[in-house]
Predict the structure of ABM domain-containing protein.
Amino acid sequence: MTMIFRIIPGNEDEAMKLMDQLVRHTRTDPNILLADVYRSQNKSRKFFAYLQFTDQAALDSHRGSAYYGEYVLTSLYGMLETSSLTVETYKPLFHHEHHLK
């Protein structure tokens, strides 16, 4: 899953703290293989998040989790320029065993 979004001016520091907490919590979930957030080098309010799940059930579980509700829906979502939010999910074309360990 990828997400691209911009933070409302003045909320960057608080949003980065929330994203750090969310990523740290997400990385403890064995069904999430990868969770990273990147900040644009040219547009300081623009971010890109990438999460890789073991399967669709893991993605659904993540979206329904208490920490997702707390960090994303309750706190972070209010700091986003909602018109900038793009969320995409993808299916892998190739499966490599070392990614599934």
Remarks:
- The chain has a mean pLDDT of 90.
